[in-house]
Amino acid sequence: MTAFPIYLDCDTGIDDALALAYLLASPLASVKGIGTVSGNVSAAAGARNTLDLLQLAGSADIPVACGAHDPLAGSFGGGAPWVHGSNGVGEVVLPPSDASLAAETAAEMLVRLARLYQGELRVVAIGPLTNLAEALRLEPSLPSLVGTVTVMGGAALAPGNITPVAEANIWNDPEAAALVLASGWDATLVPLDVTMASVLEEPHRQALLSSSAPVPQALGEMLGYYFRFYEGIYGRPCSAMHDPLAAALAVGAVKPAVAPVVRAAVDTSSGPGRGQTVCDMRGLYAGYPEVKGARCRVVLSLEEEFAPHLVETLLSHFERTTAAELVEAVPAG
Amino acid sequence: MTAFPIYLDCDTGIDDALALAYLLASPLASVKGIGTVSGNVSAAAGARNTLDLLQLAGSADIPVACGAHDPLAGSFGGGAPWVHGSNGVGEVVLPPSDASLAAETAAEMLVRLARLYQGELRVVAIGPLTNLAEALRLEPSLPSLVGTVTVMGGAALAPGNITPVAEANIWNDPEAAALVLASGWDATLVPLDVTMASVLEEPHRQALLSSSAPVPQALGEMLGYYFRFYEGIYGRPCSAMHDPLAAALAVGAVKPAVAPVVRAAVDTSSGPGRGQTVCDMRGLYAGYPEVKGARCRVVLSLEEEFAPHLVETLLSHFERTTAAELVEAVPAG
User: Fold this and answer.
1) What's the domain range around B321?
2) Of A251, B71, B91, B315, which is the most exposed, with the fewest CB atoms less than 10 Å away?
């Protein structure tokens, strides 16, 4: 089994932390670089969280580049501390990493990796799309250089989560999202339709919390904060699994059940539709017949439930890794 | 059983014809006046169709007022002959009525009837909302004068039918719809979410066609045209039941199963969201908890299937009426 080279673009963020841990744990993924962008937290804070998580996971060798602080239009709005905590990881204090940020920007890293792994790189974008838009400006042929692009974002037939129609990642930089979706690549969109239906419940969180390994433990703690926010949405302590689901779909570990390829555009007006990912779902009533010229695959449902796979992947990898480290540590001591 | 006094605002239209016939047939409805507006056809053509249908139904005494030709902004776009036929009733030639139009406009009629049946009038709006917007200008206290307002229009979580997000009635006059939804009344919206799920199938159409009464026969013929359009949407000959469903909900003959009261606004921007009825459906995940200050009831599903009730109501009324006329006709001859 060959692992896919991955560029992860994130705004770490509790569910970003889960996505990152998932990609480190998955045998299908080999993370080659991570760029951060302002979204759940600032790009700089997201980069610190990412470095700290990588060190906790024993993967401090993966380069992290700080990306765009501000969206293409306007400026960073301050993040979502009521969802992710003031530090982005649910007030959990991670051991600080002593690793440094990469000298390149996130957009530069993406372009470099796309050239290095020509046709193979899987781009997983789980924050606002500012860095991807900048990379497209740096390298207009980026669409032909990358392998696949998977974006957590938008809401096709489901309600938005910032406005009635806009989802957070797209809302935070509609101009960048419009540019990215209008580029000549076949993107997979992982919208709220499927992420809000992929719910992590309290028993899943307890399984992470009671792990012997530090990464699942920390994720379980962060999820306590996240669950409290989502209790206001679902009426019970649990949470949607936005970002890790996009990661799992990007490496093919999870298969979509319904995922029509449709035309999609982003509303960059100043009307009530601003930030909406306008997906043309009018094929619904005939089982989504093929649409000529459409390039955006919108994942609406999954073949199997996602949460058990997520928890199982995290626990089996990190408990095995930790055990191996302990074994190695004995003769060394 | 008391029948509710009804003002019907329509753009007749095949499904408008069904709604009109349904209201004439329903023991719960007493149609006091009908206004027309440009939409499926021009307001004038819709008025002719309405007069002809009323005469065929033996209800030529119901007054018909011609309403707005153009939307509040811009001008009438020419209708939807590919859906409703060039004459609006699927190329069916109805015996021409010799009745005249009312001397008042549709907006004036609505205001007059609202004052006459103070607190009792049920407004059923199944075309663009231009006349309702004009009536609100004529009589700003209209919301406190009418009983209920039921609007066929919009798409809450379903795709639009003109653009990916805009439904035809709202699309044809977004400025009027914005005004109507922002007025101080509790409106019931009957959007594509429920009308596209309320399907009339070929056996229903055959039951109308093979009726002994002229009104069901004519409706069955019109539906042949409508079915051909909808075959491109559903992949089989059948049709959505937009307007008659709004009529049945307005008189309470059909009960909603899920119908949250939410905030709703209309996108009047020039962006890709223009004409969208932006309903705030974010309460979805907690079973739509009450929203303070919300006034728009959005019907998402029904307690029972609608098509059988529609066909049964039409057949039982018009066959009975026709039979009674024939009996009366014998001694008279």
Assistant:
1) 4-332
2) B91
